Amino acid sequence: MPGSTRRLPHAFVRAAAVFALSAGIAAPAVVHAPAAHADRPATTGSTLDDGRYRLAPPANALWIKVSVPASTAPDAAVLASAEALTPDNYDWKTDAPVVLPEGTALGDHPVRVDYRLPGETTRQWTGTYAYRPHIGVSPCPGTRGSPTPSGCARR
To answer: pTM of the prediction?
Structure first.
């Protein structure tokens, strides 16, 4: 049997190959790609100089609660908690400093952040709260150009 001498045009073969490859590569990526926010945990948390706590939970969190337990044990008593948070660009900050009970040792304490995403149950993230003495700075009244504004003592 003689072989066929009929050939497909080069442009048609190239277009078919591009279509087949792009469908085979792109379709599984689209089908199997998770949502961008699916598993993004709250990745950072830090204590601000004034005692408030700043964290970066997922952007679509519906509810956030910051708690400072007495230890890392699951049944540890909660020393302080806060649900009043305010968004600040990409972060959230507690509205007031986290106040631990009198007599609590200074140092690093565990912090637990509970948050809820749309359509999900509550998730949890753990970090550290730095319990340190916080010193406030108040402005001195006076004029800008003066080296020692009136009402402020030089130390």
So the answer is: 0.59
Strands 91-94, 122-131: parallel, antiparallel or unpaired by DSSP?
unpaired
The 3-class SS string of 95-152 reads: CCCCCCCCCCCCEEEEEEEEEECCCCCEEEEEEEEEECCCCCCCCCCCCCCCCCCCCC
Rounded to whole angstroms, the Cα distance separating 127 from 86 reads: 19
Distance CA 33, CA 27 (A): 10
Give me the mean pLDDT over the 69-90 stretch. 91
Q: What confidence score (pLDDT) does residue 68 get?
A: 95
- CA distance readout (Å), 28 to 22, 72, 143: 10, 42, 67
Query: What is the DSSP pairing of strand 122-131 with strand 107-116?
Result: antiparallel
Residue 25: predicted pLDDT: 61
